[in-house]
Design brief:
five-stranded mixed beta sheet, about 45% helix, ten-stranded mixed beta sheet, alpha/beta, binds adenosine-5'-triphosphate, single chain
């Protein structure tokens, strides 16, 4: 169908969704041939001739709608005229038969051939939906006509009642003849007792039904004559989105119980627990329908509703199963049953609630109707979108479950079958808007594709046509028996085979004058058949041999496969054992993992606690650090203040010390200046004697020396230093000359027990005479000593022994004595290795030149004096030696 219109239409939105792999079911559906939903349009006649209409049927497939404003203003412009194309458009004068033939006849054919079909009428209230579907006494609708054709088709092939019995799960069971007979008897009893639910009356008892059944239908061709058939009907109503079984025996209950929709083993939706009534004639079927109608009316009276506000579904289910080889009984195997269904749906009026001006319950009803029709619309829309989007893209989820009507027919849209819709139109101008909506829906619906049904036919390998052939054979036998032919009882021919070999069996009526000729013909025909049969037999033998060979090969393969299977089973067992062992291991490991996890969580908790404690400690430490820092700052500032103070004090002291030192220096300088003055004036001042030397000399020595000093000649300008008492210096004999070639004689004057030096370097004293005491002057002069050496030893504060050798020349004095002029000091120091070597060498300016460490007992001034005197005491000699 195509709508041609000048009005702008909203383009269809295609949402891009991610690609998804096809499911098996989708792939199956893709591969199947598909048919669109067949949409027909039926225009009902106007109620009165004066009614305006904007609808025009152009031809058998096209209809146009003109908006009312154009009509009212008599505009003849075809600009805004909308055109719709349907599979077929039925004009207002179309008969019920026309509609049935075009729309429903193919569906009945589907039914007979084991395919499912759905037919629904759609339109606003009063548009003729019920009229089309059911009709009335005079104008039978689609439903009774379908029954007519169906029963007309299967009349000779119907199974006895109760051979097929509903299993209440949307399937059927096959009862044996005996069981079926028992059931029939029970029903009969109930009928006589008047307690039967469906105590069907005789056809002529109800004039309404009788008139309806008076049509002469045409049977459907192509029926499987070897099958047995049974027809079951259900009649349900969907009201306020609840499903009611109109054939249910509600007993004392006045109201019907709502039912649920379920899916059976073959993914077919069905109303759970719905009453399925087996009907053997059209009358029975219509009687059941009428009873359902009565229940419906009763229910509506109770609920104060109208029939047009509910959806009615009348299901005709055809059950068929193959007969046995004799063609007399149904094969007792429920898997051979084929069930097909024709659902005739009379939908509620599709008008919007705004137009009906409903309130209260009516509004709710209208809401439910609209909701269910809206869901139907949405489902079909999504279905169309899914079908138009390329495969591999994830389809939209279709909301079948949102309403009962769509949920119930889900398998028609999702699965396979044929779906047809009759759009009923009331052409009056008042319904224009609603008709437009209906047309839009119809337009969209026509684009939906439904997979074509392919019924599964179970081939039991039985001869086709067996039923008819056996029937004919039986009749022939009966005829022969009646004629008294004795061989008749012994004839046992599988006529089914013969019957199936060729064209129809010729008529065997022998009452015509050409009987002899016919017999001749028949004989010829049979001879041909026998010949043909022989050929077929031989052919079949060859085929049987081939087949046997194939079977043998297969058996071989089978054997091989069995051995393979056995080995695979052994491997599988091994693998299974291994996997069991592994599973056990895994279980053990899992349990140990659990234990470890527990301990881990414990440890984690401990760690958390410890880290908390640590944090606390760290906080405390930081606090303490802060405090320490504060203290440090405080003390450093104090220290700075103290050090400043000390510095200042020290500087003051330093200044005082410096001043003292400067004072001393000044005194020293003064003394030196005096000494230099004395020296310059050639007056020898009396110098302070060296205590150490003096101490070493005995009283006698001192006396001797003094004596000699007293007798000495006054000396000239030389500035000798004398080791003599300050009250006088002996005068040296100026004429005395020492023989230099004779060599020196030393007089060593030392302590009684000197500390051995123990050094490599020993004082060099050639021709030495050692004395411990100078008792007599002769000791100095008599010996002829020319050199005198005074050895003094003492220990310093660190315990080191210091040996000093005071050396001098012995010079005879004028008075016959001798004087010693000291001119050299050797200082030897023995350091103890146990004492610290870091002791500082005194930095005395006068001794540093000598490189000697002077004992504390020898003062600086005394050494200076000795040195200077020794230097001055020797003529022309000013050597300075220092050894360590
Ligand atoms: N094609 C037709 N020819 C003659 N009469 C018709 C035709 N269609 C409908 N009618 C008549 O119109 C009236 C309303 O029709 P019908 O009850 O079938 O409408 P409806 O769409 O089923 O309404 P509701 O939604 O209420 O069930 C009936 O009296 C019916 O006889």
């Amino acid at each position: 169908m195509k709508a041609v219109s000048s009005s702008v239409r909203t383009p269809m939105r295609v949402f891009k969704t991610p690609r998804a792999p096809l499911t098996d079911r989708q792939r199956e559906t893709v591969e199947k041939p598909r048919d669109p939903v067949h949409v027909y349009c039926r225009v009902r006649p106007l109620q009165s001739e004066g009614d305006l209409t904007g609808m025009r049927v152009k031809n058998s497939t096209t209809i146009t709608l003109t908006p009312p404003d154009q009509l009212l203003h008599h505009k003849q412009s075809a600009q805004r005229e909308i055109q719709y194309i349907f599979k077929h458009v039925f004009q207002s004068d179309s008969t019920q038969q026309d509609v049935f033939t075009a729309v429903a006849q193919p569906l009945v054919e589907n039914l007979v051939r084991g395919r499912n079909s759905l037919l629904f009428t759609y339109g606003v209230t009063g548009s003729g939906k019920t009229y089309t579907m059911t009709g009335n006494l005079r104008h039978r609708g689609i439903m009774p006509r379908c029954l007519d054709v169906l029963f007309c088709t299967i009349s000779d092939y119907q199974a006895k009642k109760f051979v097929f019995k509903p299993d209440r799960l949307n399937g059927f069971e096959i009862l044996s003849d005996e069981d079926a007979l028992l059931e029939r008897q029970q029903e009969m009893n109930q009928r006589f007792a008047g307690a039967g639910r469906f105590a069907f009356r005789r056809k002529d008892s109800d004039p309404e039904i009788a008139s309806q059944a008076s049509v002469d239908p045409r049977p459907v061709l192509g029926i499987d004559e070897d099958n047995m058939f049974s027809v079951f009907v259900t009649y349900i109503e969907i009201y306020n989105n609840s499903v009611y079984d109109l054939l249910e025996d509600s007993g004392i209950q006045k109201t019907l119980q709502s039912k649920i929709i379920r899916e059976d083993a073959n993914r077919q939706m069905f109303v759970h627990g719905v009453t399925e009534v087996e009907v053997k004639t059209v009358d029975e079927a219509l009687e059941v329908f009428q009873m359902g109608q009565k229940r419906k009316r009763m229910g509506h009276t109770v609920l104060n509703s109208e029939s047009s506000r509910s959806h009615s579904v009348f299901n005709i289910r055809l059950v068929q199963a193959p007969t046995d080889c004799q063609g007399e009984h149904v094969v007792q195997d429920k898997h051979t049953i084929t069930v097909s269904q024709l659902s005739l749906v009379d939908l509620a009026g599709s008008e919007r609630s705004s137009r009906t001006k409903n309130t209260g319950i009516r509004l709710r009803e209208a809401g439910n109707i609209n909701n269910s029709l809206m869901t139907l619309r949405t489902c079909l829309e999504y279905l169309r979108e899914n079908q138009q989007t390329p495969f591999g893209i994830a389809p939209k989820k279709i909301p079948y479950r949102d309403s009962k009507i769509t949920h119930m027919f889900k398998n028609y849209f999702d699965g396979e079958g044929q779906v047809s819709m009759i759009v009923c139109i009331n052409p009056r101008i008042e319904d224009h808007e609603e008709n437009m909506q209906v047309m839009k829906f119809a337009e969209m619906t026509q684009e939906v594709q439904i997979a074509r049904a392919t019924p599964m036919k179970t081939d039991l390998g039985l001869t086709p046509g067996r039923r008819k052939a056996n029937k004919m054979f039986k009749i022939a036998l009966n005829n022969l028996n009646e004629l008294g032919v004795p061989e008749a009882k012994e004839i046992d021919v599988d006529v089914g085979l013969v019957y199936s070999l060729g064209p129809d069996f010729p008529s065997y009526q022998m009452d015509s004058p050409e009987a002899a000729m016919k017999i001749q013909e028949l004989m010829q025909y049979l001879e041909q058949r026998i010949e043909k049969r022989k050929k077929l037999r031989s052919n079949m033998d060859i085929k049987c041999n081939n087949f046997r060979q194939v079977i043998m090969n297969l058996e071989k393969d089978n054997l091989q496969l069995r051995t393979e299977l056995a080995s695979l089973k052994a491997v599988y067992k091994q693998e299974r054992d291994r996997s069991t062992a592994l599973e056990n291991k895994v279980r053990i490991h899992e349990s140990s993992i659990d234990v470890l996890n527990n301990s881990l969580s414990k440890r984690e908790r401990q760690i958390e606690e410890l880290s908390q404690k640590l944090n606390e400690k760290e906080n405390m430490l930081t606090q303490k650090e802060h405090e320490k820092e504060k203290q440090k700052k405080k003390f450093s500032s104090k220290l700075a203040v103290e050090s400043d103070k000390n510095k200042r004090e020290f500087e003051v002291k330093l200044r005082e010390q410096r001043a003292k030192l400067q004072e001393r220096m000044r005194i020293k300088d003064e003394k030196l200046r005096l000494v230099s003055n004395i020296l310059q004036s050639e007056d020898l001042p009396s110098l302070p004697r060296s205590h150490s030397t003096e101490d070493m000399l005995g009283d006698k020595d001192r006396g001797a020396m003094t004596a000699r000093t007293e007798s000495s000649v006054p000396v000239t300008t030389r500035t000798d230093i004398y080791c003599t008492p300050r009250h006088g210096v002996a005068a040296a004999n100026t004429r005395h000359r020492r023989s230099r070639s004779a060599g020196d004689k030393w007089l060593e004057h030392r302590a009684a027990n000197p500390v051995p030096l123990g050094t490599i370097m020993q004082p060099y004293l050639k021709n030495r005479k050692s004395v411990t005491k100078l008792t007599d002057m002769k000791e100095l002069t008599g010996h002829g000593a020319t050199k005198y050496c005074l050895v003094a030893q003492e220990a310093d504060t660190d315990g080191d022994v210091e040996t000093k050798l005071y050396k001098g020349n012995v010079i005879p004095t004028c008075g016959g004595g001798a004087q010693v002029v000291f001119d050299d000091v050797e200082c030897l120091k023995q350091k103890s290795p146990v004492h610290s070597p870091t002791r500082k060498r005194p930095s005395n300016g006068n001794l540093s030149g000598l490189g000697a460490v002077v004992p504390s007992t020898v003062t600086v001034t005394s050494v200076q004096d000795v040195a200077s005197r020794c230097n001055l005491g020797i003529e022309g000699h000013s050597s300075k030696k220092s050894k360590m």
